[in-house]
Write a structure and sequence with these properties.
By secondary structure, the protein is α+β, with helices and mostly antiparallel strands. The chain is built from eight helices and six strands; from the N terminus they run E-E-H-E-E-E-H-H-H-E-H-H-H-H. It has helices at 25-35, 83-102, 106-109, 118-140, 151-172, 182-209, 237-253, 256-283; strands spanning 2-7, 13-18, 44-47, 71-76, 80-82, 148-150. Helix 2 packs antiparallel against helix 4 (118-140), helix 4 packs parallel to helix 6 (182-209) and helix 6 runs antiparallel to helix 7 (237-253). The longest helix is centred in the middle third of the chain and has 28 residues, at 182-209.
Length: 299
């Protein structure tokens, strides 16, 4: 049977593809690319309607009830970049920026002989642990459901992460930085380390849900690791632990820019978590009804 592929902007026919009922959207994207080299499969978003939901690569012509002469609409997502590349850039930058400012370069502080406080040393270690963990997770742990993301997101994300890294580092490592009492520092350090370990535990749990090379989705549940028990209360405990880690870092440094970073982070993660929570409930009828998105019992 023949499927017409129309441009979602002006309904212009971009391709006519001969397919079978078992042909998947992924296979159709390859056909479209063959007729239009600009439209790499990763740039294509296919929909049943102009403003409809983007179809999954695993969908087939039969599952979508498409017949001979049916129409699909395509949107060009623009230049793409691999998720791993984006993550590596996002996380390597803040690590390097923070550690550079931690050295108190003349460009920021002029000539300063003031001793770096013990709290500033601990904060630098915490920052390093977080972003080194992120880099290693990107390489060895994460399995992405999508191979790419829009190139423009790279610049937006890097500005956010790199900018906040400089903002926080400048104040925490400033010669006039005043540390809270060490009891507060060590308690917050304990909270930070537990949260980082919890975040890693959730990422490993999520990785084990998805077989290599697939985009299979399952309901995430706690495993034998007690730190994954947060799945019993929220859909995205990785975000919960992430926020707790940065809240602990903020308490450790008692620094306003760190609190602002934590606040900006939890806002964005809450938006992501609510979206994922809605998708879980739509996709799985048996999804636990008592779960919240990111904050147990609240949100």
């Amino acid at each position: 049977m023949e499927i017409e592929v129309l441009d979602s902007r002006n309904s212009k026919v971009l391709a006519k593809c001969n397919v079978k009922s078992t042909t998947s959207i992924k296979d159709l994207k390859t056909q479209i690319h063959s007729s239009n080299k600009k439209l790499h499969p990763h740039r294509q978003a296919l929909r049943l309607e102009v403003k409809g939901k983007m179809l999954k690569d695993s969908d087939t012509m039969e599952s979508l009830n498409l017949r001979n002469g049916s129409k699909l609409y395509i949107k060009d997502l623009g230049p793409q970049i691999g998720w791993s590349t984006v993550f590596l850039a996002e996380y390597a930058g803040p690590l390097l920026v923070y550690l550079w400012i931690y050295q108190r370069p003349w460009l920021f502080y002029g000539d300063s002989s003031a001793e770096i406080s013990q709290t500033a040393h601990i904060a630098a270690a915490c920052w390093t642990i977080h972003y080194a963990k992120r880099l290693l997770e990107t390489i060895f742990v994460h399995r992405f459901s999508h191979a790419t993301m829009p190139l423009r997101n790279l610049f937006k994300n890097c500005i956010y992460y790199w900018g906040f890294a400089a903002y926080v580092a400048y104040h925490v490592n400033h010669p006039q930085f005043t540390s809270p009492c060490m009891t507060q520092v060590y308690i917050a350090l304990g909270g930070f380390l537990i949260s980082e370990l919890g975040n890693l535990s959730i990422h490993i749990n999520l990785r084990n849900l998805r077989p290599p090379g697939t985009s299979i989705r399952k309901i995430p549940v706690a495993d034998a690791n007690p730190l994954t028990a947060l799945f019993n209360f929220v859909s995205c405990p990785n975000y919960t632990y992430e926020f707790l880690a940065w809240l602990s870092f903020s308490i450790l440094t008692q620094c306003l820019p760190a609190f602002l970073f934590a606040l900006a982070g939890v806002y964005q993660m809450a938006v992501w978590a609510l979206g994922k929570h809605r998708n879980y409930k739509k996709e799985f009828k048996e999804y636990p009804k008592n779960r919240k998105a990111i904050i147990p019992f609240i949100l």
